Amino acid sequence: MGTKAFWLATTAAVLIVFAASRLVTNDYVFFAGYVVLQYVVLATAWNILGGYAGYINFGTSGFVGIGAYSTVVLHKLVGPPIPVLILVGGIVSGAIGLGMGYLTLRLRGVYFGIATLAMAIVVQTLVTNWDFVGGSRGVYIIRPAHVPFIGGYIQYLFLVMLVLAAVAVAAARTIERSVFGFGLAAIRDDEQAAEVSGVPTLRLKLIAISVSCGLMGMAGAPLPYYVTYLDPASAFNLGYTANTIAMPLIGGTASWVGPVIGAIGLATIQQVSTVTISSALNLLIVGVLLLICVVVAPNGIVGLVRGKRRRAGRGG
Amino acid sequence: MADDLLSVDKLGKRFGGFVALDGIDLTVRAGERLGLIGPNGSGKSTLVNCLSGTLRNDSGTVRFDGNLLNGLAAHRRTRLGLARSFQLPKPFRSLTVVENLRVPLYYSVNARPGAPHLAEAAVGERCRELLRLVGLEAKADRQPQDLTQIEMRKLELARALAAEPKLLIADEAMAGLSNSEVDNILALLMRLGDRGIAVILIEHIMRAVISFSQRLVVLVAGRKIADGDPHAVVRDPEVVRAYLGE
Q1: Which candidate, A139, B84, B104, B117, has a CA 20 to 30 Å from the CA of A28?
Q2: Which residues of chain A lie closer than 8 angstroms to B95, CB-CB?
Q3: Residue ranges per domain, chain A?
């Protein structure tokens, strides 16, 4: 897809989803749609570090929680509009990601993963013991019932997440095709060879983790307004981590399309099964799909399609 | 000497109690072809790693082209013009052959302060040139996994050359290759000398080392035991005893 075509398609997708949402009167659709879009942002953000640079981040829940709780703090102090909260959540989360990266990006493989998981648990413990944001009791957020021009608040939140998803996907695609993305691919394939080819590996990894974690924080920032009651256990839910890793792996990590396909597919199945079968089934579905994926499509759905195409192209 | 491209002074490296390199002195002039031999475990690879910045030396100094390299990250040394290839080829497996060459062009050539920035078209032209030099034009758009062993070595060399080095360290670029393949790589390395690129060749294949080198250095147990004319060095009794066998 050319760059012009990508922007046209993205804008069209946003407008079509927005127009279609005008026709929907059932609020539940927006609640479910918000979650799906939130996962598009999270999976896309995760893939910038995990897919492009090959560093598996187990700290998604930590960064969602940081974004959410930076909103809680700002809400209590000033109460700015959602776009400002998203921006601040992204900056705080990105900065903490940068700090974590500086400490942990010299580690490789499982050691990096363990360090990120530990970070998420440390932040959760800190927030649980911070009385100003409600501690373990949690905190209530009173949100306005309506937003001018848009209607109900959930419609507004859905729209905000829709735009954020478009921004995240555009950012991932831009990185993928840039010189920066080339450097990340070199790091993923062989870090030592990348370094002696002139790639400043540490600096590139730090930029990638900042962008990745920043976007995760942005996805988490509207969460308190979405749930209206937030406690550390739900903000730092490890389900975010599991889902966010599973989605790019199922969709395919090599390009920006993979996480989008994985997030929309998996999150939709989860939302539908929550209301039709049982909410406890969610992670079981993720596990089963991940297993199937490992066996049938080790490079994700995108890898499967590309492999078929390549074989067809070679005529065999 | 002022006109030395690389000058290593009393370089030392230890791993715990094991002394891997013990006071190594070494110089390489611009455009010189230097052979480096030694038995397995004599410190050749450690020396390469200390020169290229993959490892930090514990003592001594490394100067390259007027710069003190101590403590400098590997990517900065490459940008200064000190490139290396790996003993076991380390291609970027998710990139095509031609894309492999783009990495050093983007990150080394285009990141050099003061040097003219190559536009996209010039980068493409440079890639084709390098592929022609090593004879991989036909494989430009293939993945590294499709390459044969010798093609993989050639890719490894081409990627090191893409960084426009003044000195190339070729770490066992010919190990495991057939006779004619060795000649093939040797001819390629000779052509680099003609272009004014200094080469340090680390190799066990004596025939290749002798015909290639203008000067031969022998390492044994972390020490330099000989340095001079290749034919004289291989007749040195100490070298014969330690490396070649009587």
Answers
A1: A139
A2: 182, 185-186, 189
A3: 3-239
DSSP 8-state code for residue A293: H
Contact A196 B83 (CB under 8 A): yes
Instruction: List the single residue in A189, A190, A196 with the smallest CB-CB distance to B74.
Output: A196
Nearest chain B alpha carbon to A186: B92
Q: What is the pLDDT of residues A64-110, one digit of tens each?
A: 999 999 999 999 999 889 999 999 999 999 999 999 999 988 887 78
Q: Is some CB atom of chain A closer than 8 A to the CB atom of B93?
A: yes
- Domains of chain B in start order, with CATH, are 4-90+164-244 (3.40.50.300)
> Which residues of A are less than 8 Å from B104 in CB distance?
197-198
Mutate to test the interface with B, among A190, A197, A310, A314 (most CBs of B within 10 A): A197
| CB spacing of A197 vs B159 below 8 angstroms | yes
ipTM of the complex as predicted: 0.91
